[in-house]
Every structure is written in C-alpha cells, then in structure tokens.
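Two quick folds needed for the group meeting slides. Do the first one here.
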Amino acid sequence: MPENHYENLLRAVSTPETLGYELLRDILLPDLLGQEAPGILYWAGKDLARRLPLSQLDDLPTFFAQFNFGELKLSQQTKNRYIYQLGGQQIARRQKAFSNADFQLETGFIAQQVQQLTQTVAEGQLEFDRDKITIIVQTDHTDVPQATAIDNPITLHHFGSTDAPAEKPTTDTRTSATPVTDLMPKRTQRHKRGWFSRN
C-alpha cells in the first residue's frame, strides 16, 4: 500500500501554517533549479498529485486553501477543457513581491488530478493577468493514460470543524502512535532521562 503523505502531514501539524512557504517557493527553488525551474515544478506538481490523489475535483479549492496555494475556482468546464482561476491576496502578494513568481507547480498538480479523476490524458498551461492566474487544463478523451487509477484517495480534513476524521487502522509498524511532542523531553525532565530514551 502506498504511503499516505496527507495523513502524515496531519499528524505533524495542528493548524495549517505556511512554514516558510514563500521563502522556499520564490527564493530557494528558483535559485536551485535555474532556467529549468518552470518545467521541473510542473512535473513536481504532477508527482505531488500522484502522491496526494483527491477523491473528486470539487476538493481542489479546499486543498489549495489548506496548502496555501491560493484561492482556486473552476470558472468554466467543457467536455475537453477545465478553466480554473487562481487568485486571492496571497497570489497578489507573491506577484507583487517576486517578479518571477511561478505557478507551474499548481498547474501540474491540477492537470494530474484531472487526469486521474477523468481517466484521460490531461495537460495544463498558464495565462497571467495581474492579480489573477488562469490555468487551462486540456483533456484528450481519445488517449487513455497508463496506470492512473486511484487506489486510496485522500480524505480532506477540514480544520476547525467539530467532525474529526475517523481513525483508520494502520498495519504499518514503522509509524508511531505517540505524538512527536511526547517523545521530546520536557524542560524539567532533561535531567531525568537521556535525549533518545523513551523511559
């Protein structure tokens, strides 16, 4: 069974936080990847979609909000085309702060989710317009992609809701049920036990 990265993220945080998102996206990654950054980020977005498969396209806006990708809206849909608008204050701030702000990661992510959920080959492209980004995903119903079936789509958690997601039994013995904070010694406990011991 493939690793459920989304559930791992939920165990690591209690609230959705950016954690240096802008620093990584707009300074570090462009510097590391150079001129190839847009192409690499597009395929990285597709890979993320494979690791975090959604159960329905209607979950895309919620996913984008949770992971600080911006406000996503489906503005038009035809048989072979999905047109999304990506906007919001975060998008406007990124475009204002960084002249080379890139949204290929988001484009690849959407294109792969469409491909997985429609079982058709899908590719995306960007169109820029001031504070709004248009992402157009074109599908080809005559071409069926290889191995795009979703075995275990993620169930999105809605932060702040009173309905807690049901715990799924795990058979993976590598993960610990003990929260990370309980494994770290408290300030008053440092003299009682070694850093790596659980006693």
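Then this one, please, same format:
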Amino acid sequence: MEAVEKIRARTDALYALGLDHTASSDDIRNAWRKIAFSAHPDRADNDCSDFVRAKDAYDLLRQEGLTTKNPMHGKPKRPKLRKRVIRLKDTEVSACRDLLARALAHSGNIAPTDDGDQIVADSDHIPSAIECFGRNLIYFVKSPVCKGANRVALPTSVLVGFRKTETEVLNFQSKNAGAGEVVVPDAIMARKFPGAKSVRIRFDADQALQDAFELAS
C-alpha cells in the first residue's frame, strides 16, 4: 500500500468512527466503545453493518499504532510521501462544467448552444489535474484568471476515497488577469475539502507546468 493510500485509509477509518485527523488515541478508543455498545447486533435488531464497519475501522487504526498511549510503542512511523499528479476523469470535468452551467443559468447569463451544450463564462474555471503531496493539494487550471469576479468548480473529495465525487464552486476576486495562484482559506478548506491540510489553485497552468511538477515528484 502506497503512502497516500495509507493516509487515505486512516482518514476513512477515522471518519467511520465519527472522528477527524486530529483525534487522539483516547478519542479513537472512546468512539469505538460507544459505537460497539450502541451498534451491537443485540441492540440494533440484528443489524450488524454499523458494528462491522466500526470494528474494521478500529482494527486498522490499532494495527497502525494509533490506539495505544503506551510510550514504549512510540508513535506510528509516518509513511514516506511522494508527489503524484491525478488527471481528472471526463466524468469529473463534466460534473464541474454542469455545476457552473446550472449556476449561470439561474443568473440568466448562460444560453444553450446548437448542440445542446451550455456555455461557461470566461471567468469560470475547471481544473484538468490535481497534484497530491500527502494531504496538500494543488489544482491545475489551464485557463487564466480574469480581472474581477472569478469562479472555479473543484472536485473536493479527493482524499476521501469511499465518498462519491463531490463538486463545489468557489468564488474569488482578482485585481489582475493572467497566471496566478489562489490559496483556499482554512475555514473553507475545513468545510469543503475533507482530509486536506492545504489547498491551492494554480491558474494558466499549461501542460508543460503540469509535466514539470510530475517529473519533480
């Protein structure tokens, strides 16, 4: 299992117990005891699905050394991270485009084309790839920033593998046009990007820039 996959598995396991990446060993044990008691088949009309899911999550975290507070065991060894660039699937790009199109249609600033597709404004952006380095994300957008109001639609559940793809539209203002980078504020990141430590968006990121990042990984 690669480093990023291990981190994702831990994140998924913590989420299954109702926790996030800040949870302590005490938090994990207490969450497991609570779920084991309330979701036990004897108390859930013989439905063991929640119990089994929580037990599998707890077992994974225990194997990773995240449930013990015995200093003899020390902290779990952090997996060595490496960068990777994920090319967005056609379905993900379409989901982003559809979300922007629906929002523009509500505002009256969009009209269908002859072939039934919808026009996305120049100030609206869709990424083509995502660089992942642990829980740090960089979205690559080929289009340049427009002066004034801009919007970008992003797949936000990159680090949470068991969830379906979710897409959000972020709004921002730019004083200049062209290449640039936007850093997603912590408050928005915590709500919209589960599991992420930092999120940046690079605009006017052509294929050469994306390849450079990939070669440096």
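Slide caption for protein two: The two ends are 18 Å apart (CA to CA).
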